[in-house]
């Protein structure tokens, strides 16, 4: 929000200075239009960047989930699970 406000104020002032040689009313009418347009473009750019980052984060989270699942499968295959409790195995000397 602060970025949009800064963009609107700075472009509005620059437009007013640039349009002042054309006339006072041209500067008064044109500056808010330029400021609004610049703020709209800046807001669109910020939204696009946020959506892009969110998509990248979701892809990485999905890859992490697949990797964790694969590691769990590997650990379950590597350690044979006995149906008997471990206490009974120790008593039998296994």
What is the overall silhouette? rod-shaped
Mean pLDDT: 86
Number of strands: 0
- Helix run count: 3
- β-strand percent reads under 5%
Give, in order, the helices and strands. Answer: HHH
* Approximate helicity band: over 70%
Biggest sheet: strands, sense, closure? none
Low-confidence parts, pLDDT < 50 over ≥5 residues? none
Task: Please give the alpha-carbon distance between the first and last residues.
Answer: 68 Å
Helix-strand makeup class: mainly alpha
Rg over CA atoms: 32 Å
Strand and helix map with partners:
Layout: H1 2-19, H2 24-78, H3 86-92
Helix pairs in contact: 1-2
Describe the structure.
The mean pLDDT is 86. This protein has 3 helices and no strands. Helices cover 85% and strands 0% of the residues. It has 94 residues and is mainly α. α1 packs antiparallel against α2.
What would you say about this model in short?
By secondary structure, the protein is mainly alpha-helical. Helices cover 85% and strands 0% of the residues.
